[in-house]
Amino acid sequence: MPPTTLTPRPEPGPPLPDWLGRLLCRVGWHDDELLDASFGFAPRETVETVRCRRCRRVVTRRGRR
Ligand SMILES: [Zn+2]
Predict the structure, then answer these.
(1) What is the pTM of this model?
(2) Does residue 38 belong to any structural domain of this protein?
């Protein structure tokens, strides 16, 4: 057993293990963060651009306030 030395990460990583994050992305449960939000065509409709923190997939989706 090597000595257990905790190597601090330069930035806070995802709270989930990598394998679990990839699994969740595989089943469509992405860890989206909002990149941009703008108004859609219809009143009260918004178009959001989100990106997954894990697999970097970027999608735009419509939502309502
Ligand atoms: Zn993802």
Answers:
(1) 0.63
(2) yes
